[in-house]
């Protein structure tokens, strides 16, 4: 795989089962990525330093997943010009609502593109789409991906038709 263009950051190793869905998507599009555990609360200086150096290290998009009072995506976005995609993780009795609100309700001026609770797959896809603005080969692959999705829906429609008729 090529030089990492996407940094996947998560607040804890307990986020990995969800966040690896983003990694799978990036792998399938042959986009280089790296995975880092850095907590906005437990290792704030590590998280800040990672985000501060991300641009000069050649990263182009950050994906950040965290549960509970999830400050991680916003903290990263505070110190990098790179686009940050936030993944709210269902990690507490509030089932991800806490994290969703913390990530999606970023105050004006510092956006974080927020996907659904546990929506790491979409975070991976959005990262590919952002990169596709610059890399035409990724744009073509993404178009093909969407065509494949449409083909799958048609196959399902045919299947349902057969079931109803039989
Ligand atoms: C957050 O707290 C992490 O992102 C994780 O979702 C949650 C629980 O972390 P652990 O107690 O499993 O380390 O900071």
Assigned CATH architecture of the largest domain: 3-Layer(aba) Sandwich
CATH class of the largest domain: Alpha Beta
Radius of gyration: 17 Å
- Main β-sheet, in a few words? 5 strands, parallel
Give the overall pLDDT as a whole number: 97
Notes on the protein architecture:
- It is a single chain.
- The chain is globular, with a radius of gyration of 17 Å.
- Helices cover 49% and strands 15% of the residues.
- The protein starts with 5 loop residues before the first strand and ends with a helix.
- Helix 1 (16-28) runs parallel beside helix 5 (120-132), helix 2 (44-54) crosses helix 3 and helix 5 (120-132) packs across helix 6 (136-165).
- Strands 2-1-3-4-5 form a 5-stranded parallel sheet, with helices on both faces.
- With 166 residues, it is an alpha/beta fold.
- The protein folds into 2 domains: 6-134, Rossmann fold, CATH 3.40.50; 136-166.
- The protein has helices at 16-28, 44-54, 72-78, 97-104, 120-132, 136-165; strands at 6-10, 33-37, 61-67, 84-89, 113-114.
- The structure holds 5-O-phosphono-beta-D-ribofuranose.
- Residues 11-12, 14-15, 39, 66-68, 89, 91 line the site of 5-O-phosphono-beta-D-ribofuranose.
Furnish the topology, listing elements before pairings:
Layout: E1 6-10, H1 16-28, E2 33-37, H2 44-54, E3 61-67, H3 72-78, E4 84-89, H4 97-104, E5 113-114, H5 120-132, H6 136-165
Parallel strand pairs: 1-2, 1-3, 3-4, 4-5
The structure holds 5-O-phosphono-beta-D-ribofuranose.
């Amino acid at each position: 795989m090529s030089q990492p263009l996407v940094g996947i950051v998560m607040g804890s190793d307990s986020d990995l089962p969800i966040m690896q869905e983003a990694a799978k998507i990036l792998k399938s599009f042959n986009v280089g990525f790296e995975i880092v555990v850095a907590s906005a609360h437990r290792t704030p200086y590590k998280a800040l330093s990672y985000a501060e150096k991300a641009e000069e290290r050649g990263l182009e998009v950050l994906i950040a997943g965290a549960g509970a009072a999830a400050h991680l995506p916003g903290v990263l976005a505070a110190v990098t010009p790179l686009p940050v995609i936030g993944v709210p993780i269902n990690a507490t009795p509030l089932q991800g609502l806490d994290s969703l609100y913390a990530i999606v309700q970023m105050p004006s001026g510092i956006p974080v593109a927020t996907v659904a609770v546990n929506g790491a797959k979409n975070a991976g896809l959005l990262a590919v789409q952002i990169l596709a603005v610059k890399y035409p080969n990724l744009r073509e692959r993404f178009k093909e991906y969407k065509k494949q999705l449409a083909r799958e829906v048609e196959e399902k429609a045919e299947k349902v038709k057969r079931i109803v008729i039989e």
